[in-house]
Amino acid sequence: MNFLKRNILTLFVTCLASTILQAQILDKSWEKITQMEEGSWFASQEAKDIAENVLLYQRNIGGWEKNIQMHKPLSDTEKKNLLALKDTPKGCTTDNGATYNEMLFLSKIYRQVPDERYKKAFLAGLNYILEAQYENGGWPQFYPLKKGYYTHITYNDDSMVHILNVLKEIKNKTDYFSIKPSEETIERVKTAFNKGIDCIIKTQYKQNGVLTSWCAQHDENTLLPTNARAYELASLSGKESAKIVLLLMDIENPSNAIITAVNSAYVWFEKVKITGLREERIYNDKGKIIDKKMVPDADAPPLWARFMNLEDNKPFFCDRDGIKKETLAEIGEERRNGYGWYTNEPKEVLKKYPKWKEKYDSLSSEKKVKSPKDDYNMVVAKDGTGDFETIQDAINASKAFPYQRVFIHVRNGIYNEKAHIYSWNTKVSLIGESKESTIITFNDFFGKIDLGRNSTFHTSTLLVEGNDFIAKNITIQNTSGPVGQAIALSVNATRCYFENCALLGFQDTLYTTGEGFKNYFKNCLIEGSTDFIFGEATVFFEGCVINSKTNSYITAASTPKNQDFGFVFKNCKLIADKNVTEVFLGRPWRTYAKTVFIGCEMGKHIKPEGWNNWNNKEAETHSFYVEYQCIGAGYQPESRVKWSHQLKKSEAKKYTIENILKSDSENAKWYLN
């Protein structure tokens, strides 16, 4: 009898404990469940039941909606409705922990219960994240894109930091996630992570020329701070910036740019911290906040405002009318009590910074003085297997005015940097491993630079000022998009040779300047929208593909009055993106512009009249716009403007590479590389 009683008692206690545990789980929020320590509970039937909900809620695109309590039981009707929504991507997001939390849960349960459905769903979520990323490295709040402020790059509520932390664990092949993607996917993840970090570096706000912190959201085109909801105005964020900095501090072997970003943000956090003030909350009988007020307290730990003016870091507060107020007391109860206006999250940055600084500030100086094994043959590799990890570091290590050529071999990778071949870096060869996979990219543009009327000339991704430069098998791009002037490649040097390169951008992709300077582009792809090949130098384009992305103008030469040649295109192919139907061959940036097309294939997107005077009647007399023996639907010599020319055979004879590019230098035939 005692034995039976003991068994009954044991069973009762076990059932009671199970009931209590179940109640504890069901009382938690979905986010707290996903954050639970891994263990046997994730092998329980309750966890499996929740996993079925997670699978049901996932859309076929791979993402999940936000603010769903995944652990709440579903009725048969609710399950049926969710199945019907599978093909609908609307509402999928990474906001408020959505997608991130579901992937985390699936990883934890898969470690205990290796159901292939969990793995498939996790990988679909990862693919969703990769597909949602902008080319500039940021992520929108919703994907597919949802109109409104939702398209902005969002750091709000640490959305992008959550994403990058997922990618970081996967690219580093840690054991944090139980589900391991393929090597091909891991390579995609590495690229996405690097682009994301680059976006963070580029969006760090400069206040009067000094780096500070970040806004909760940045415009997806300009990268500048921007508004979200009516009470979430463009500002510097004391909350979201904290997690961004902690992410940067967690990167092993950080670049100089990352080190600078962290150092600058730390200084800003120290500058704007609020002392001697405490937030006091008043609750009703049900535990709901019915009022908040700030009270003086000399012993209160530091606080930071969530919103600070871009101009002077002054905290501000808003109701739904979007009107800034100086104090929390000035806004209504609904927003005062229903929103977090202060934060203490930066305290973790201040706590961890001294140890981080001790480790990495010395590393920064070491990187600057690193020397290659061979001064004339250097290797740049993103993975650290070369002499340098950035192209600029290799350039900085190159000899000034060398007696022999300096070869910088660049291995495949996406190099998110502005590179500058200085005037003393003569005879440099930048040789990529492949045009398709060796990419130098940046996204400066006129409005972002904001240095006045000449801001265009500061936007280039690669600026060449060293004579006798050579580039082969490499892509140089400006990813700003259709936001105005944004140069991919600037060449302010002579005897520069480009072969099998891709120059990608929109307006002002390629700028070649320097009176009397001569340069050669062979078998290159050059694409853009407006005036995307412009400048005053003599340039010979041979066998190049010229791609127009919009209805606009290909060239804008500014040839000096007494210069024999401007832009000469020989045996090139002129193509266009879909729906582009009205493109001019060129217009004169300056009155004596010279542009010639010889033996080129012109697509039907070229306008019959061919050329435009840019509202400058004088240019019709002094410019020199010429064609000879071209082919294709876009070549309509009889329809061209009357002030353009068609060469005679005798006149065409002078358009040889020798006549156009000959040099008085010791390397007279420099173009024969």
Automatic annotation (TrEMBL):
It catalyses: [(1->4)-alpha-D-galacturonosyl methyl ester](n) + n H2O = [(1->4)-alpha-D-galacturonosyl](n) + n methanol + n H(+). Pathway: Glycan metabolism; pectin degradation; 2-dehydro-3-deoxy-D-gluconate from pectin: step 1/5. The active site is at D531. GO terms for molecular function: pectate lyase activity. Residues 377-663 form the Pectinesterase catalytic domain. Its EC number is 3.1.1.11. Residues 1-23 form the signal peptide. It is an enzyme of class 3 (hydrolase). It comes from the Bacteria. InterPro entries: Pectate_lyase, Pectin_lyas_fold, Pectin_lyase_fold/virulence, Pectinesterase_Asp_AS, Pectinesterase_cat. Pfam families: Pec_lyase (PF09492), Pectinesterase (PF01095). Keywords: Aspartyl esterase, Hydrolase, Lyase, Signal. Belongs to the pectinesterase family. This is Pectinesterase. It comes from Mariniflexile gromovii. The lineage of its organism: Bacteria, Pseudomonadati, Bacteroidota, Flavobacteriia, Flavobacteriales.
